[in-house]
Write a sequence for this structure.
């Protein structure tokens, strides 16, 4: 019985941690080169 | 030069902004002659409209929803909520008017495209989905395609929504079923699937984007008959995803924040695999209104009168054959597009 309680507790904790990690997420990798250039006159001919 | 008579049906955020765009002093390098009528279903909007536009715009009340417009009207812009535009478009087309719809509901877009034969028979044009996405997204895809010899894939992503009706449609799209074009057939996928990190123009930056029931592929595939893949995604947060099944208790703001578009094309240029990424950054209601208004003004512009006239039928903006002119006029009105130049796969 005690073993089952520990297993349920461990599963619950694991689930909680995974939910927190899932929703916090991490920073995306920023492109190292390049950028946006506005389309101007010559582009729109 | 004759006066172009334009009616705007719908006086919500989008309808009022479209009217304001139509009143601009210049369009396509000229000072056009035009007369504008705005149609509303609500009496309480009349005072607000009178305060905004005074006598420069004629106003009509249409409580029955069956707008009876003066005979002189030649072009009609429908700015009602998505899902309410088909019946009006069909009616106005049968009366021999060019019609511009702003819907982004894929079911309604499909129905509108089926009016192609009716539009052709009366010799008029039905423009489907002249808003932010679809609309501006179709113009960007059409323009980007000129940079490639062959286009294999088009991937569109959108961030943001305009007014409350647009926010409701965004939620319906995310809860709905996406229709992607893949290897010559339509593939149904559940909304909120296929998460992809998409980079929008700054300051929006990177956003998670999910499949959703969007109309862009339905309008782009007929214009690019040899295309292999067309997809459209909406930016959403993890919180949106978790709360999606539950009813929304808080009303959407009267106007959303800054929105963005990302249009990526993959294909071939000079025998090598190439990609082109276009973007746009603006308030969705502002960009949508400018797009619809510019298309209406284009119908009446002298440019159109001197060149071959627009072919009748139902089409999205990419099929109008005036991509550069429309984008240039939009740029003059502050709706500017950008191209991503740099590392592949960003």
């Amino acid at each position: 019985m005690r073993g089952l309680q520990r297993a349920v507790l461990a599963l619950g904790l694991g689930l909680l941690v995974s939910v927190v990690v899932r929703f916090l997420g991490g920073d995306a990798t920023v492109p190292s080169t390049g950028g946006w250039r506005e389309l101007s006159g010559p582009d729109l001919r | 030069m004759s006066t172009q008579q334009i009616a705007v049906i719908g006086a919500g955020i989008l309808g009022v902004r479209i009217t304001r765009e139509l009143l601009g002093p210049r369009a396509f390098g000229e000072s056009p002659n035009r007369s504008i009528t705005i149609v509303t279903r609500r009496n309480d909007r009349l005072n607000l409209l009178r305060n905004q536009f005074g006598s420069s715009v004629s106003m009509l009340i249409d409580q029955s929803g069956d707008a009876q417009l003066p005979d002189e009207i030649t072009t009609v812009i429908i700015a009602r909520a998505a899902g309410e535009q088909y019946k009006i478009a069909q009616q106005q087309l049968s009366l021999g008017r060019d019609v511009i719809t702003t819907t982004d509901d894929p079911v309604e877009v499909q129905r509108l495209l089926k009016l192609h034969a009716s539009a052709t028979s009366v010799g008029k044009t039905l423009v489907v989905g002249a808003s932010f996405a679809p609309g501006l997204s179709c113009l960007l895809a059409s323009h980007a395609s000129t940079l490639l010899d062959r286009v294999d894939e088009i991937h569109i992503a959108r961030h943001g929504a305009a007014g409350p009706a647009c926010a409701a449609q965004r939620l319906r799209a995310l809860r709905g079923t996406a229709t992607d074009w893949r290897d010559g057939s339509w593939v149904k996928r559940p909304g909120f699937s296929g998460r992809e990190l998409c980079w929008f123009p700054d300051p929006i930056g990177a956003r998670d984007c999910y499949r959703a029931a969007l109309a862009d592929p339905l309008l782009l595939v007929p214009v690019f008959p040899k295309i292999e893949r067309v997809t459209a995604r909406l930016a959403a947060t993890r919180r949106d995803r978790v709360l999606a099944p539950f009813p929304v208790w808080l009303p959407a703001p009267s106007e959303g924040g800054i929105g963005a578009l990302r249009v990526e094309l993959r294909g071939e240029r000079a025998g090598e695999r190439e990609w082109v990424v276009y973007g746009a950054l603006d308030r969705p209601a502002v960009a949508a209104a400018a797009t619809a208004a510019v298309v209406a003004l284009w119908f009446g512009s002298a440019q159109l009168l001197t060149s071959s006239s627009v072919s009748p039928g139902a089409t999205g903006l990419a099929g109008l054959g005036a991509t550069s002119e429309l984008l240039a006029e939009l740029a003059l009105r502050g709706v500017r597009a950008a191209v991503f130049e740099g590392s592949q796969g960003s």
User: Anything to note?
Assistant: Helices of chain A lie at 2-24.
